[in-house]
Write a structure and sequence with these properties.
This protein has helices at about 1-5, 100-105, 160; strands at about 10, 15-20, 20-30, 35, 40-45, 65, 70-75, 80-90, 95-100, 110, 120-130, 135-140, 140-150. The chain is mainly β. A hairpin with a 2-residue loop joins strand 2 and strand 3 (about 20-30). The chain is globular, with a radius of gyration of 16 Å.
């Protein structure tokens, strides 16, 4: 379905486990989902400005922008990134995202809210480093698995119908009130 409809671009049929540089954290299709990659654009949280974290008035100065093949997340902190893949979710599909076990076993939690029917864009990923040590995230390698749930019928009101505030996002997107 994804390959035929443009639901995921770029789309990788099958699992990719190696690159020219050697073994990588896998991405592409899996048994019942799709393993996404994170791009090389990161926003690393910093408390250097000692502001209050307010989802209604988020201070962009709370992040340091990094463009790199790796992201080092400070201990007990987090970083935002985005998927390499652009998604166009059909009106009868809901998508749930779970972190890959490779990162989970290192104390790195991937958090993504559900991708609702008719949402489209690059997915903003949040990586929480729950450890007391710096943690590394690899760009252009697998970081999370998307699980697709088909509805028995078309939803009455889609994300697009509601005019969702994150519709069409293309970069790492900060909270909007």
């Amino acid at each position: 379905m994804a390959e035929q409809t443009g639901m995921i671009e770029p789309f990788q049929a099958g699992q990719i486990r190696e690159s020219a540089q050697g073994r990588i954290i896998s991405y592409g299709t899996s048994s019942y989902g799709y393993d996404v990659r994170c791009s090389s654009e990161f926003k690393i949280f910093t408390n250097i400005n000692s502001t209050i974290v307010d989802p209604k008035d988020f201070d962009e100065a709370s992040f340091v922008d990094v463009k790199s093949d790796v992201c080092i997340i400070p201990p007990n902190s987090f970083a935002l990134a985005r998927t390499v893949e652009f998604f166009r979710i059909p009106r009868d599909v809901l998508v749930i995202c779970l972190g890959k076990s490779t990162y989970a076993r290192c104390g790195i939690i991937v958090n993504v809210t559900p991708l609702e029917p008719e949402w489209e864009g690059h997915v903003t990923l949040e990586f929480s480093n729950t450890t007391p040590l710096p943690a590394k995230i690899y760009a252009n390698e697998g970081v999370a698995q998307m699980l697709f749930f088909g509805g028995d019928e078309i939803c009455e009101t889609s994300y697009k119908d509601r005019g969702g505030k994150y519709q069409g996002q293309t970069g790492v997107t900060l909270p909007k009130a």
